[in-house]
Amino acid sequence: MSPLCDFCGEQRSMVYCRSDAACLCLSCDRNVHSANALSRRHWRTLVCDRCSAQPALVRCIEESVSLCQNCDWTGHGGSASASGHKRQTINCYSGCPSASELSRIWSFVLEIPPIAESSCEQGMGMMSINENSVSDNWRPHAENSSGADIPCDSMANNVENDDNNFGAWLASTSTSDVHPMSCSGDQPACSVDSTAPKLCFSDTKDLGISKNESFYDDFSVDDVDLTFENYEELFGVSHNPTEQLFEDAGIESFFETKETSAANSNCQVNPAAEARTIQGTCSNNPLSVDSAMSNPGTKADSNLCFPAKEGRPALSLSFSGLTGESSAGDYQDCGMSPALLMGEPPWYPPGLESSSFSPASRDSAVLRYKEKKKTRKFEKKIRYESRKARADIRKRVKGRFVKAGDAYDYDPLCQTRSC
DNA sequence: GAATTACTAACTACCACAGGGTTCG
DNA sequence: ATCGAACCCTGTGGTAGTTAGTAAT
User: Which InterPro entries does the UniProt record give (predicted)?
Assistant: First the structure.
């Protein structure tokens, strides 16, 4: 909870690096993140003025403070007067912006001390600033191949990207991260893979989406970049592709609660989904992580259960490999809100919890989901070219690798059998 | 309409081993 | 504190076997 820089321990910390899980002064931020190309990709944002430990997501205009989701929730969720405070989304950035650049993106911060210029300065072209604002709430944030932003409205109207709405909603219900799910750490897919649209939204209160039924009309999942790109770095184990998240449970499970009684609203069990990553979890605890964590050292699947509310289904996410030894920081690094993970009430997009949608919209959404499920392809990503090159020349017997020198029936180099 | 069968698509395990990371002396 | 050896773990592709989904009967 120290407001001092985690690196130098002398200066007051100003920015939070999610990848490093560290609060840094601007000087150290610059030094640390100019070290190499990977560190330059780290997304940073202001440190919460309240807890001085979490990344701030919003700026309360009335109180002139930057708040993380926890503190925003605590401070603005309680009283009616406070909840009416005008809040502004805080931009995050990567690269090594100068003080003037920071002043520009954080105009509300009065004092940004000068930063020593470094070699990183010449890499300013790499700097990326997440330009969200209150008026841009709930709009998929895309980048084209040149790194320039694509107008979100055009993207929202793009049928090919219609799934992002659902992904954004899902991500927002499970994380407060400025870059939901995939946007954390050094993985290229996070900040430099400009071919895939990235969802960037951070305002946690004023997402005016649910009243628009087109949101549900565009309800499907597969194009959304929900994959935990750096899952292994986060959890230390391999994972099933997140695309499988809805493979078996089916999106229908998310629509099937309108008739659900309050008694079982927390326990939506889809038989087809029991064994997979997303499932209804019988628990009265909004977060069943605790129970799954109760056995330290075991790699039990942890289920995050979002309790059903009227008009919105119970939702649980399973994170294989989360162990009881995992810290809150680990969860936050994976994009999960500590509030969510630590038992505080989850956030629902306004309206989702109280509104319902028509059966026609539901049927349409389900139909669209099924259609896309039929046609989608998940391309394999090669992480280690050297290993691929090795595998490409390995001799095999019935597809299996064989020891060097042993008999084989397939040699990729010969393209023939037993050459 | 329900039950059974046939077919197709998708998924998973298996194998050896280089290379990265960790532990220990 | 540093170094090297030993050990552990991961990921890579083609095939076979299994499972799930769909269509036909």
Answer: CCT_domain, CONSTANS-like_Bbox1, Znf_B-box
Integer Cα distance of A339 and A54 in angstroms: 11
Q: Tell me the per-residue pLDDT of A396-408, one tens digit each, with 9 for 90 and over.
A: 888 888 888 888 8
Cβ contact A123:A95 at 8 Å: yes
Q: Which of A223, A317, A222, A238 is nearest to A273 (CA)?
A: A317
Strand ranges inside A297-358, DSSP E: 302-306, 315-319
d(CA A56, CA A43): 12
Å from A240 (CA) to B17 (C1')? 24
Q: Footprint of strand B, using CB within 7 A?
A: A 240, 244, 247, 378, 386-387, 390-391, 394, 396, 399-404
Residue–nucleotide distance: A381 CA to B21 C1' (Å): 22
Residue where the block lists tokens 């430990």: A53
Cα A242-A247-A251 angle, rounded to 5 deg: 105
Please give the angle made by the CA atoms of A309, A307 and A235, to the nearest 5 degrees.
145
Q: What is the pLDDT of residue A179?
A: 34
**How much is the pTM?**
0.34
* Sign for the pseudo-dihedral over CA of A82, A88, A93, A97: negative
Burial bucket for residue A3 (CB in 10 Å: 0-12, 13-18, 19+): middle
User: In chain B, which nucleotides are within 7 Å of a protein Cβ?
Assistant: 11-19
Determine the Cα–Cα distance for residues A263 and A243; give it in Å rounded to an integer: 31
Q: Name residue, tokens 């909840």.
A: A83
